[in-house]
Design goal:
By secondary structure, this protein is mostly beta strands. About 15% of the residues lie in helices and about 35% in strands. A hairpin with a 3-residue loop joins strand 11 and strand 12. Helix 1 crosses helix 3. The protein starts with 6 loop residues before the first strand and ends with a strand.
Length: about 290
Amino acid sequence: MIKLGDYNTLKVVKTVDFGLYLDGDDDSGEILLPKRYVPEGTNVGDELEVFLYLDQDERLIATTEHPLAKVGDFAWLEVSWINQYGAFLNWGLMKDLFCPFREQKMRMQKGQSYLVYVTIDEESYRLMATAKIDKYIQPISPISPISPMSPQEKTYRHGTPVELLVWQKTDLGFKVIVDNRYQGQLYDNQIFQPIRSGMKLQGYIDHIRQDGKADVMLQPTGQQHTEEFATQLLQYLHDNGGRCDLGDKSPAELIQDRFKVSKKAYKKAIGDLYRRRLISISDEGIALI
């Protein structure tokens, strides 16, 4: 079955001067892959992974380019232009992605970026973006050994690695989208690096709340974080002449600015390396042995 707004693996059935035709299904028929997107050396019978969308005339067309998002994705996209019907967003393909006025929380402005969800308009069967994303955010459930299995594919508990898309600033920190599906909150006291809306970050689950949202953090906790940062610090020493002028009494602001971790995490990593007899500690900082 052909998936509009997604990647499909299709067989080449015909070559023409202006590209290739790929084998679709009974509804779509053959699908054109324009010449500019044809990989060199492609022949009839080969299979290609292509992205399917609609061209300017609303005809199904293929490309080997990779858009910034596909159907079912949340994405941070910039407005390229606006007409009397809505805004057109740059999503990395020749034809921009349409967001009608009825799907905007506020009137979008050219040159500004917004968090949207990519979907298919049920009435017109056209690809579109919507800024009214709340109805597409799902509740997240923790899974414990004594609880029934949730329909979600992934087990979420404290320390579970997740992908984060930064949504917007709040009084507490930042709202984020977790694993392209759930809503999360990243608190100011867990942030040790510059953050802005639209950034994609590696994060970790801190706590699953009763409202189905997740509190998240940017560093793993406990021994795992200590070991990971100790390895990073050791590499820093090797790359910088075996010395670092920051010690366990250095200001937290300097540590955060250079290594993007808390002073507590820095001191734990120093202690780990010292116990392993890999570094010495002095008033001037730390050094490789």
